[in-house]
Amino acid sequence: MKISSAIANRYKISKRLAKRYIKSGYVVLNNSVNVKKDLEINEKDEVSLLISKKDVKYDIDKFLIAKYNNVLFLYKPPFMHTERHKLEDDLTISDIVEANFSEYRLISRLDYETDGVVPAVKNNFKIDYIRKYYLALVHGRLDKSLTLRNKIDAHKKKKVIVTEKDTDNETGITPLKYFKNNTLVLVTVSEATRHQIRALLSYYSFPIIGDKIYGINDNFPRLMLRCQKVAINSYTASSKNLKTFMKFCII
């Protein structure tokens, strides 16, 4: 076994992150040697990290929206990771689930600057229906509803590509309200690939305000995208802090 595999298994992180820690000199072999190469080790070897997971205190009521026998809905604020990327990261939604609702597993993720509903379900729960409703403030005046079926090519790590190929996965875009030359839109999806909404809106010339990857350089303080509501089978929950989001729309 390589050191990266041992570190990944012990600390429940990706091998990619484990290799980054090795290269940065944060890995200790047999309590004595700092290693910077991903060496082969045997079962008797012991590896550890010089980095520890942050222990962050929090109020669970700020995150819990609703809890049912099979489904859990949490609120993720903007500028918070859904899952831990690094051990030294601040609190994440996955930390809250693991510590308080260990019988549930996350089935959705939101980008770092996106806020809104994040659902989790029990492992044996069968999902027959799922629908997600997003709010996005976009540049330009969208004057009609759109139904988009473009296939998303997400093989690149940072930025996905919108293709002209059709898919069964529909993305519905409905204009709700205008703010000067910007439009607040409702986006509905059943399944979402990485950056699907952001990339599609940009591709059709309505980039989300504050989008540093697919948008224009508007220097807005956050990405104006939130998951407002999620429906799973007969369970439904809406996001907290809608008024805060709407205040950002008046720019």
Verbal overview:
There is one protein chain. Helix content is 17%, strand content 35%. The strands form 2 sheets. Strands 4, 5, 6, 7, 8, 9, 10, 11, 12 and 13 form a 10-stranded mixed β-sheet that branches. A hairpin with an 8-residue loop joins strand 6 and strand 7. By secondary structure, it is α+β, with helices and mostly antiparallel strands. The model has no long low-confidence stretch (mean pLDDT 91). The chain folds into 3 domains: 3-49, RNA-binding S4 domain (Structural Genomics Hypothetical 15.5 Kd Protein In mrcA-pckA Intergenic Region, Chain A, Roll); 60-122, Alpha-Beta Plaits (2-Layer Sandwich); 130-249, Pseudouridine synthase, CATH 3.30.2350. The chain has helices spanning 3-11, 15-23, 93-100, 196-203, 242-249; strands at residues 27-29, 33-35, 47-49, 64-67, 71-76, 104-106, 115-122, 130-139, 146-153, 161-179, 182-189, 225-232, 235-238. It is built from 5 helices and 13 strands. The N and C termini lie far apart (55 Å).
Helix/strand order, N-terminal first: HHEEEEEHEEEEEEHEEH
Mean pLDDT: 91
Q: How many β-strand stretches? A: 13
Proportion in helices: 10-25%
Straight-line distance between termini: 55 Å
Would you tell me the structural class of the helices and strands? alpha+beta
Low-confidence parts: none
Name its key features.
251 residues; alpha+beta; Structural Genomics Hypothetical 15.5 Kd Protein In mrcA-pckA Intergenic Region, Chain A; Alpha-Beta Plaits; Pseudouridine synthase; 3 domains; ten-stranded mixed β-sheet; three-stranded antiparallel β-sheet; 5 helices; 13 strands
